[in-house]
Amino acid sequence: MKVIIVEDEVPSAEKLERYLTKYDPTTQVVAKFDSVAATVAWLKEEQDMLDLIFMDIQLIDGLSFQIFQQVQVKKPVIFTTAFNEFALDAFKVNGIDYLLKPITFTDLTSSMKKLETLRVQFGNRDESDRLQKALTTLQRKSYKSRFMVKLGEHIRSIPTDQISLLYADGRDVYMVTDQGRKFIIDYTLESLENILDPKNFFRLNRTFILNIDAIKDVLMYSNSRLKITLTQTFDKEIIVSREKVNEFKEWFDGAGH
User: Fold this and answer.
1) What predicted TM-score, i.e. pTM, was given to this entire model?
2) What is the domain extent for residue 235?
3) Which stretches within 24-81 are classed as H helix?
4) pLDDT band at 257, cuts 50/70/90?
């Protein structure tokens, strides 16, 4: 079995590799990465050789969920983390298990047995693409399709395709619909990134997540940034941060989707 380990703590990565070798001496850890960027770059070129990914959630340059927004992950993932609040998000991508640190050999064994069971259910190792397709289907169905909002004493349900943008203002996060209506919602931008379909929504910077259908124009701006003009009137300037420009262009062009 060929495995990669995505982990920003060297001792944790080495411990996991020891456990994998103990569980199955034929296991090959073909690469280790400590960042979102490095993992994405490798997966785009080498993913087909893999059988399994072990992935920490908090990496040196962000949460590993950002990897799934930049490349289609076709292989099963076992998440490892010291925090349990990410469990639901882990199973909305290709996660087949979620291990809390410090990981024991018993924990690892349980996860590997679970993977073996899934392979039996969806076909043997030579037919592992069936497992991958099943995981991809689960991932595709997991994106949120509507949000409940309060309007005075009333409750409304807003389909995601009617959302133009979401933005943070202090501790509040607002949803703006294609009709220009604005609602406060009980989500963080980080959680919204993981539950909105990345084909349609993109996080431009620390403040804004935008629906591609809300874009009227994209302009070159100072310091290698981009400025977004919306199809509707909006009283705040929307700028794509410099570090997001290349990723935005790929998303806007439909690359990887």
Assistant:
1) 0.49
2) 146-253
3) 36-46, 65-70
4) very low
